[in-house]
Write a structure and sequence with these properties.
The complex is a heterodimer of chains A (about 350) and B (about 675).
Chain A: E1 4-7, E2 24-27, E3 30-33, H1 35-54, H2 57-81, E4 85-88, E5 94-95, E6 99-107, E7 114-121, H3 128-133, E8 143-147, E9 152-160, E10 165-167, E11 170-176, E12 183-191, E13 195-198, H4 209-215, E14 228-233, H5 245-249, E15 255-259, E16 266-270, H6 280-296, E17 300-305, E18 308-313, H7 316-327, H8 332-337
Parallel strand pairs in A: 1-2, 5-13, 16-17
Antiparallel strand pairs in A: 1-4, 3-12, 4-6, 6-9, 7-8, 7-11, 10-13, 11-12, 14-15, 17-18
Chain B: H1 2-7, H2 12-26, H3 37-51, H4 59-84, H5 90-106, H6 111-129, H7 135-156, H8 164-188, E1 213-214, H9 218-223, E2 228-234, E3 245-254, E4 259-261, E5 273-274, E6 278-285, E7 292-293, E8 295-296, E9 310-312, E10 318-320, E11 328-335, E12 338-339, H10 347-350, H11 360-371, H12 376-389, E13 393-394, H13 405-413, E14 415-416, H14 418-431, E15 436-443, E16 446-448, E17 453-457, E18 461-469, E19 473-477, H15 479-483, H16 485-489, H17 498-501, H18 511-536, H19 540-548, H20 557-580, H21 589-603, H22 614-624, H23 629-645, H24 651-659
Parallel strand pairs in B: 13-14
Antiparallel strand pairs in B: 1-4, 2-6, 2-17, 3-4, 3-8, 3-15, 5-12, 6-11, 7-10, 9-10, 15-18, 16-17, 18-19
Classes of the chains: A alpha+beta (about 350), B alpha+beta (about 675).
Chain lengths: ~350, ~675
């Protein structure tokens, strides 16, 4: 179950978890002046010196008003983040090299309008101090959004996927400098839901010829189109037109009419087909391309990898099954360690 | 690549507002700085707006512009140096600041430039206060600060969702919420009376007031000024208008054209023989950047000043050690009837000095009178009668006098005002061997019934004479009174046309309107007086006085800072609470409605479990209470549509359904 994060409502509040929902994790909101805020402070100092030197009441008033304004802004900046509930949704898989989009659901049911909330990849923990000291307020965010009153808002954080496997967005810094840019309030979200990254499809798009011809005439579990040869049990993903409606009407259950498969191309893709390619990634890319091609040509296909065999099949789910097998080939253990 | 992104990140609307704020902040300066700076500033602003939408100008073209701008900048700085002869000082500094703001706007490329321009704008606002601190200025500058803050809000709205009005509202909210802490700081921040270091030499120029010489035209300029010279609070009834002679300087030396001060300031005070009841009053003198004070004829001793030292000279001038560069309040006691009979060595000789070559005709006239056998007193009367009976006119626009000012005035033009009459009379007296001196100061004053004080304007500036009479000592004689008695009895206002008195044309046509206008003007001046007393003049003394009302008269700095921190903390905690609390209205209205629904069901014995989703709960409830099944399902469907489909438009429908859901409790 995905974890819910709440950015703490009051600064320094003691309770880290709320009584009503223990599944909610509380994250502290940090706040520091930005570099512009520091410049503003210097300006205020110069103004104060001027006011004292000239003993000018209006200069005093403006200096005090702006000093007070910076304090009030601090609260408003903090308020812009405080109390927001964040859930991570599941990211759709992408092919390596594409932008993975990690969706976040910002739950603002208890809050006012929050403007200009930005996200950026958090630095490593040891860089945190440097991050605090150099908080410039003008980091280029990977995503920003406004969060309306009393609503859910979905925001997608784009992260470039480098290689196949599971991609973790890691620690994400959520920050805002609204309203005046003098302060930056921020907090961290641990993105625990990974995004599945398929191998980058590459290679030649023509299928291994041997396999295609071999496939002809083989009667697998899938249905052909020619001569009726019998029934089998219904499986998810079978075409509706092949359902034996007569049997269903007689309340015998769902059956699929089977035909001889000479009209259907059955494609068996296996590790051996790509053994000529130099390295594992190239082989996976080639297989990936073939799987996609097969799917788009409505072929029945199976996939055989060392230690993994995926039965012949067709459809989005089957495709996803195959592609995830390809993407996680040989790196499962590595990911488990994470 | 990141850099490029930042270039395009300056939203045009925030730039508009920033420029608007900067123009507002610089506009009042436009007459104080060299005339060419303001147009240049405007050109830079408009040029930037023209450039802005097409930031993708070719790099080469832009760098040509850059070189041009650089040269323009160098030339402008040289221009300022040429104009003022320095780059330091207040005016040159302000000019440079305006220029800097203009060029900074032009080169805005990144967020940093935007912030720096905005902060420059705030700083420009402060520089305006060095020149004027009126209520009007305060309101105008408050608007300027609001516009500047608005531009910051717009700039920080990275999604571009806010309209100018909405961000104006945010900026106004921020500024309003800043006021309490500002007040605490203003009241409690420890004030010091002396500047931290020397002010630039031109820090106090441009202040109007009487000069320490009386040269042609020096007074007539003042008479056209509506500025306030000082305000006076009398402890009791104010004396009559004709008794209000506000003594400033004593002029002893003349070169035939200009009257200047003698060396009487080096002689210590002599005692005053008083012959009437004392009149006590408090004067609030506007800054005039001169080293003297004013007091009603005749003060008995020098007043105590807060941040300055004063002393009284033998001819009853009140002098100060340092120029009066800020509004100063002091208590004086004066006597309307007095006798000054003590003299210092050579005082009478000095008071007989006349230029040898000049005033031939006047001297001849006096000799003629003396030859007629007139006594001193008769000569004085004769001279005053001359002004009164001969065709002398009181006018503020006299003909120009070129050579011998006294002779020309007495025998040819016969038109003039106090400065002419006083100098002519003094010359006549000196020619007759009667010691005479000219007193510069103010005469009259306007009683403000709203604030119960007397206002003395610059237009009340006046010059009169004192002559030495055997047995009576120094006696005041005002020759102007001989020509224009109204001037003295009713005040300068009766002698001035309406347009100088600042009465708008529509009000000057009938007496009632004029009176109404006058009432308004009094009220306005009373407000201004309060503003000056409590805001502008809030210095160490006033702070002590104010804190004394709360029993904190002897508070020291550390306690003041402690109090500031304490108050600020309380205010900020309150603000924090107000801002961050989840108000019941605010709290998820949809959830509230659903909870109401669950509560109604629980009255029928169907309790909603924490782990139970809305669909499961609805199914269970509908099984238990088949009669309510339809309503339960409707409410659940709408709830789900809103909650999980973000279909907020259905909230009213949910409200309606939940309201009309009244399960019977059987």
């Amino acid at each position: 179950m995905p974890e819910t994060v709440v950015l703490e409502q009051y600064p320094f509040s003691v309770r880290r978890t709320t009584a009503e929902n223990r599944a909610i994790k509380k994250e502290r909101v940090y706040i520091m002046p930005t570099r512009h805020g520091a410049v503003f402070g210097l300006m205020l100092f110069a103004m104060a010196i001027g006011a004292i030197n000239y003993n000018n009441s209006m200069a005093y008033i403006l200096t005090f008003l702006l000093s007070s304004l910076s304090l009030v802004t601090l609260l408003h900046t903090c308020k812009n983040l405080a109390g927001i509930l964040i859930n991570q949704a599941i990211a759709s898989p992408v092919f390596a090299g594409e932008l993975a989009k990690f969706p976040l659901i910002l739950d603002n049911r208890n809050g006012q309008l929050r403007l200009s909330i930005s996200f950026i990849k958090a630095k490593e923990k040891w860089q945190l101090l440097a991050d605090v000291l150099t908080s410039t307020g003008n980091e280029i965010p990977i995503a920003s959004c406004d969060v309306c009153t009393n609503t859910f808002n979905r925001v997608e954080l784009p992260v470039k996927s480098e290689q196949r496997g599971l991609l973790y967005a890691g620690r994400i810094k959520i920050f805002t400098t609204f309203p005046l840019g003098l302060f930056k309030a921020w907090s961290y979200i641990d993105m625990k839901q990974p995004c599945l990254v398929y191998p980058n499809p590459a290679g030649q798009s023509t299928f291994p010829p041997m396999k295609l011809t071999e496939a002809i005439g083989i009667q697998g579990n899938a249905s052909g189109t020619d001569d009726f040869i019998g029934f089998r049990n219904y499986q998810k993903g079978d075409p509706i037109k092949d359902i034996a409606w007569k049997a269903y009407a007689q309340q015998k259950g769902l059956f699929i009419k089977r035909f001889s498969g000479s009209g259907v191309d059955k494609l068996h893709l296996s590790w051996n087909d790509v053994s000529t390619l130099p390295d594992i990634e190239a082989r996976l890319s080639q297989l990936c391309l073939w799987v996609i091609e097969a799917e788009s040509q409505s072929l029945q296909y199976s996939l055989e990898l060392p230690e993994v065999f995926i039965e012949i099949g067709h459809g989005d789910e089957h495709l996803h099954h195959c592609l995830s097998a390809l993407s996680q080939y040989d790196i499962k253990n590595e990911n488990l360690k994470k | 690549m990141n850099h490029k992104q930042a270039v395009d990140n300056i939203p045009i609307n925030s730039l508009y507002w920033l420029e608007g704020g900067l123009v507002l902040a610089t506009l009042p300066h436009s007459l104080r700085i060299p005339y060419w700076i303001m147009p240049l500033f405007m050109v830079l602003c408009v040029w930037k707006l023209y450039l802005s939408p097409q930031n993708s100008l070719k790099e080469i073209k832009f760098s040509v512009t850059k070189i041009c701008i650089f040269f323009l900048m160098v030339i402008s700085v040289i221009g300022i140096y040429y104009h003022f002869g320095t780059l330091l000082g207040r005016k040159a500094g302000v000019s440079l600041l305006v220029l800097l703001a203009g060029f900074k706007i032009f080169e805005i490329k990144q967020a940093r430039d935007f912030y720096v321009s905005c902060f420059l704008g705030y700083f420009l606002v402060v520089t305006n206060f060095l020149y004027t601190q009126t209520i009007g200025t305060a309101i105008y500058m408050a608007c300027t600060v609001l516009v500047m803050t608005l531009s910051l809000v717009l700039f920080n709205d990275t999604q571009g969702k806010l309209s100018a009005k909405a961000s104006g509202k945010i900026a106004a909210t921020l500024l309003l919420q800043s006021i309490p802490v500002m007040l605490v700081l203003f009241v409690l921040f420890p004030r010091i009376s002396n500047p931290l270091w020397g002010m630039p030499d031109d820090a106090h120029t441009g202040l109007t007031g009487i000069d320490d010489v009386m040269s042609p035209g020096s007074i007539s300029q003042l008479i056209l000024s509506n500025e306030v010279a000082f305000r006076v609070d009398f402890k009791n009834e104010p004396p009559q208008q004709s008794q209000l002679y506000w003594r400033g300087l004593v002029l002893l030396h003349t070169d035939g054209k200009t009257w200047s001060r003698g060396d009487s300031e080096h002689h210590t005070a002599v005692s005053l023989q008083t012959m009437s009841d004392p009149v006590s009053y408090t004067i609030t003198l506007e800054a005039h950047n001169k080293k003297w004070l004013y007091a009603l004829d005749m003060p008995d001793q020098n007043p105590q000043l807060e941040a300055n030292q004063s002393w009284m000279t033998s001819d009853f001038q009140l002098l100060t050690k340092n120029p009066v560069t800020r509004r100063t309040r002091y208590d004086v006691t004066s006597y309307s009837k007095y006798r000054i009979t003590e003299l210092y060595d050579g005082e009478l000789q000095t008071a007989l000095q006349l230029p040898q070559q000049l005033h031939g005709k006047t001297k001849a006239l006096i000799h003629q009178w003396q030859n007629e056998g007139l006594s001193e007193n008769q000569i004085i009367d004769r001279a005053l009668r001359l002004f009164n009976e001969d065709e002398f006119y009181y006018t503020l626009r006299p003909p120009l006098l070129e050579n011998d000012r006294v002779d020309e005035f007495l025998f040819e033009t016969k038109q003039g005002f106090c400065e002419h009459y006083a100098s002519a009379f003094a010359v006549m007296m000196r020619a007759a061997g009667i010691p005479a001196r000219i007193i510069l100061g103010y005469q009259g004053g306007e009683y403000n019934p709203v604030g119960d004080y007397v206002i003395v304007h610059q237009r009340n500036a006046h010059a009169w004479t004192e002559i030495w009479r055997q047995g009576q000592g120094w006696t005041r004689i005002d020759p102007t009174a001989a020509v224009s008695p109204l001037r003295i009895i009713e005040g300068i206002e009766s002698a001035l046309p309406n347009d100088i008195l600042d009465v708008p044309f529509i009000f000057s046509q009938n007496t009632l309107a004029k009176k109404l206008w006058q009432r308004f003007a009094y009220r306005w001046d009373a407000i201004n007086n309060q503003w000056n007393q409590w805001v502008i003049n809030y210095g160490p003394k006033k702070q002590k006085e104010f804190l004394g009302k709360f029993g904190l008269r002897d508070i020291n700095w550390s306690s003041m800072i402690f109090l500031i921190m304490a108050f600020t903390t309380v205010i900020l905690l309150y603000l924090t609470f107000m801002l961050l609390r989840i108000s019941p209205q605010n709290k998820d209205p949809v959830k509230n409605l659903y909870n109401q629904f669950c509560k109604k069901l629980s009255h029928c014995g169907i309790h909603h479990d924490v782990y139970e989703g809305p669909v499961d709960f609805a199914r269970r409830a509908a099984l238990k209470r088949g009669d309510l099944a339809r309503q339960i399902n409707d409410i659940t469907d709408i709830y789900i549509a809103i909650r999980y489909g973000s279909n907020n438009a259905q909230i009213p429908s949910l409200q309606e359904h939940v309201r009309s859901f009244r399960p019977s409790t059987n």
